[in-house]
């Protein structure tokens, strides 16, 4: 896809800062671009290194839910800068790891930074989550770490994941999942006049009941549903501190983060790790 059509302003900012050599941002977001997971609430200020550790934990939560094993072929959809592929490469042997992303700029960074260990294979490829460029029954595991809300349609992605997975294979993902009664408010928030979409197009409107029915319709069964909202909350003060440090002026950056933070603190929005088994 042409870079001008991607419209993820937060990635434009991140990539520009990384190109300029911002070491603190590189430490925090140079590998994973997602929320952190803290097993216990940390005392004091979270540093970029602490955040990077927590972001790595979150990745492991997601692929742990997929029951990753040595020797598997894995597709990481919306692979960002290659952090999940890097972690799998470091922790598993005999694996073939494919990272797919719609943004060629991110893939260039991933390719430069993530090199296969002996016995593993790594490829990065450009593509859209809703039209996966792979044959049927090709993968044991499909992952989508904190990115499904950007995809054009969750249903189409589930259909595609189901097509490319072998029977018994796993689809594991993390997502912000609203309580059903939050949906009218979520729809209203789209009309907020200051929102210019720093985080691009985000659809945070798939409830757990909708996930179950999506799974049923596309040949999956929900096997793991883990609520890690509490463990992700230290992400928000860290994002605020980085926003101040970078002097981010876009009001939608603050507003959207604030909405997600408070909806999460009030448990109206839950951060879930979900894993689905392909049945047929
Ligand atoms: C929050 S980032 C997460 C990146 C990565 N999964 C990680 O955890 O570090 C969201 C990612 O989804 C990618 N993305 C957005 N829409 C996509 C689509 N339709 N197909 C494939 N990737 C997409 C973005 O380019 C970005 O890399």
From TrEMBL:
Annotated InterPro entries: Erg6_SMT_methyltransf, Methyltransf_11, SAM-dependent_MTases_sf
Signal peptide positions on this chain: none
Keyword Hydrolase: no
Keyword tags: Methyltransferase, Transferase
CDD domains the record matches: AdoMet_MTases
Pfam families: Methyltransf_11
Segments traversing the membrane: none
GO molecular-function terms, A-Z: S-adenosylmethionine-dependent methyltransferase activity
GO BP, sorted A to Z: methylation
Domain Methyltransferase type as annotated: residue spans: 75-172
Name of the protein: Methyltransferase type 11
Naturally occurring in which organism (per UniProt): Nitrosococcus halophilus (strain Nc4)
């Amino acid at each position: 896809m042409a870079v001008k059509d991607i419209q993820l302003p937060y990635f434009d900012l991140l990539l520009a800062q990384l190109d300029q050599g911002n070491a603190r941002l590189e430490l925090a977001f140079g590998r994973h671009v997602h929320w952190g997971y803290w097993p216990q609430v940390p005392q004091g200020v979270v540093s970029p290194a602490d955040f990077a550790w927590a972001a790595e934990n979150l990745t492991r939560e997601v692929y742990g839910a997929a029951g990753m094993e040595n020797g598997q072929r894995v597709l990481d959809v919306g692979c960002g800068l290659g952090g999940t592929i890097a972690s799998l490469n470091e922790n598993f042997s005999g694996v073939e790891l494919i990272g797919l992303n719609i943004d060629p700029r991110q893939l260039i960074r991933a390719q430069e930074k993530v090199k296969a260990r002996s016995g593993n294979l790594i490829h990065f490829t450009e593509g859209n989550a809703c039209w996966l460029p792979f044959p049927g029954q090709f993968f044991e595991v499909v992952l989508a770490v904190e990115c499904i809300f950007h995809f054009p349609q969750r249903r189409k992605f589930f259909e595609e994941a189901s097509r490319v997975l072998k029977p018994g294979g796993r689809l594991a993902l993390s997502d912000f999942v609203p309580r059903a009664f939050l949906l009218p408010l979520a729809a209203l928030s789209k009309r907020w006049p200051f929102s210019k979409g720093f985080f691009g197009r985000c659809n945070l409107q798939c409830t757990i009941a909708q996930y179950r029915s999506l799974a049923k319709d596309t040949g999956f069964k929900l096997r793991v549903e883990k609520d890690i909202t509490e463990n992700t909350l230290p992400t928000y003060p860290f994002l605020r501190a980085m926003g101040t440090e970078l002097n981010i002026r876009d009001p939608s950056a603050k507003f959207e983060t604030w909405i997600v933070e408070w909806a999460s603190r009030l448990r109206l929005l839950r951060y879930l790790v979900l894993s689905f088994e392909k049945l047929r």
